[in-house]
Write a structure and sequence with these properties.
By secondary structure, the protein is mainly α. It has a two-stranded antiparallel ribbon with strand order 1-2.
Length: about 200
């Protein structure tokens, strides 16, 4: 449930409601150097957001592994395959703003959960595609869901971290995303080398 409205900015930073109750019931609280209090669980929240972002990057790139086999089976040339892979970014870019608005309305917990479920379903459905139109359609759906990752991460940063920690928290979030891109690219490159070799060995 959403926390009660806060009347004082200092109370919000301290993680307290206007009536003095904790805004995050059950969270472990520590006193900071400035005398303000924030839940220690905020770092767990950041870690979970980073984990979601890592999965986000892997799921958007995984189609590149079976791409050569898809091209051969469906008779798709490299240009059309590029359109299929790039279709993801059409909706990913378009839905950043709507998802940011959604995260402001319902909170990061619901917004991020909805995003993860959406893009996971889209990833699974991609395996059922049997043509160019269905592949593009599922990539478009994937982009809609994955658009919610960064807005939700920003919402986590704003809601759970005091001003003096928000920059480092945002840096960690962005770093995990960047490392996921590099690591995911290496794994994809390795998979695209190993899978054909394994297929030849099995024949």
């Amino acid at each position: 449930t959403a926390p009660p409205p806060v009347e004082n900015a200092a109370l919000l930073t301290a993680g307290l409601c206007a009536n003095g109750n904790l805004m995050f019931p059950g969270a472990i609280i520590k006193r900071t150097n400035g005398g303000k209090r924030m839940p220690r669980i905020r770092w767990l929240m950041m870690f979970m957001g980073c984990a979601a972002m890592a999965i986000n990057y892997i799921d958007r790139a995984n189609l590149a592994v079976p791409a050569p086999f898809i091209q051969k089976e469906l008779g798709i040339d490299a240009t059309i395959m590029g359109v299929i892979l790039g279709a993801f970014f059409w909706t990913y870019a378009t839905f950043q703003l709507p998802f940011g608005y959604f995260a402001d309305k319902v909170g990061a917990r619901i917004a991020l959960a909805a995003a993860v479920i959406w893009w996971s379903v889209a990833t699974v459905l991609t395996a059922t595609a049997n043509g160019i139109a269905s592949l593009i359609g599922y990539r478009l759906l994937l982009g809609v869901g994955e658009a919610g990752a960064y807005p939700s991460g920003t919402k986590i940063n704003m809601a759970w971290f005091p001003k003096r920690e928000r920059t480092i928290a945002a840096s960690i979030f962005d770093m995990i995303g960047a490392k996921s891109v590099v690591g995911g690219s290496k794994k994809i490159a390795s998979a695209r080398t190993l899978i054909p070799a394994a297929s030849k060995a099995a024949r």
